[in-house]
Structure formats: structure tokens, C-alpha cells
Request: fold
Amino acid sequence: MCVARSRREGGVVTSAFSDLAGVAGGLWDPAPEGRRAAAQAAACFPDSVPLLVARLRVETDPKVFGALESSLVSIGSDAVVMGVVPLLRACEPAVRIVGTDILRVLGERSEPVARALLTDIDPALRMIGVTIVRGLPTPEAPDWLLDVLRRDPNPTVCVSALECLAEIARPDMAPAVRAARDRFSDSEEFAAGIDQVLRVIDPGVWTARAP
Reply:
């Protein structure tokens, strides 16, 4: 019997899922209950990552979907990180969201992928990178977001970076944030984001944009 890492309160994998072959078959069970049981059991099998990701792409039952996500997070390996990255380009919003959530929860293990996303050609993926970087447990995260603010050509991506900087920016970043104000002078949302960051990190001297 394998103790399921996603069931730390004494739950165990049933004999139906005593090996990877059983899990593989169960993930394609016509009954949602069977797929959910297989998804939960998969947490015991690190090599099940490709199977979980493949099922995640097509799963429609919310409970099974959640079990697939939980097992991937429980395994939490580099294989999980690399396996879910393609999900970020999926057509289905729910699949993209769960891919983002898994990378965000895995934290430091996702750092190389998150940094790469910040320079992706697709603005939507750069925004996902910003979201993941915000939660990384590394002191360099604010600097990476500030770099996005300085160089990214897309104002929406920069607004996303500003929203995150409002939570994690350091006071010493205030001059650089002020210097970026004119990058998108026709965007009120961008200007408001600049002001919000300055309110947080430099409340004594920030200057609101003139109407």
C-alpha cells in the first residue's frame, strides 16, 4: 500500500491503484468518481505527471479537475513545472488558470519558468509570469517586476506589474517608478498604477498626476 501524499490523515491508495498502470486506466474511467479516485491516487506516483496533465486538458468534471490539480501540486517536482507550462497556452481558460495556479503554488521551484515568461513574445504569458513572480519567495522578485515596468512595450502588462509592485515594491524603487510615469502618457490606468505604487512605498513625497 502506498500512503497518498495528498491524504496525510491516514488515507491510503486502494489496491485498484497499486501501480501506475492502474492509475493510468482509472484516469480515463467513464465515471467521474473513478477518475477522481485515480487522480487522488496518482499523488503516490511521481511518474504519473504526464498522465495527469493529459487528463487535465480534457477533464470537464469540477471535482476531478480539482483532484488532478491537487495531485500535481502534491508531487511538486520539476517534471510538474515543465509539464504544466504548455497548459498556459491552452484554449480553455480554466486550463490556463489551473496551470498558473500550480506554478504559483510551487513557488521557488517555478522561478526559472516565471522569469522566462516575463520575456515571452505573448503579452498574455508575460502577464502570467508577472502573477507568478509576485508570489515567489525571493528578494529579487520586486526587481524583476520593476524591469518589466521599465522595458515591456505593452501597457496592460505594465499595469499588471504595477499592481504587483504595489504589494511587494521597496521604498528605494520610488525614483525608478516615478521615472516610468511617461512611458504610456495616454493611459490613465497606467498613471493610476504609478500613483498607487508611490502611495505605498513613498507616501510622504509622491506626486499625483495632474488632471
In short: Residues 62-75 form the longest helix (14 residues). Residues 1-14, 207-211 have pLDDT under 50 and may be disordered. Residues 139-211 form one domain.
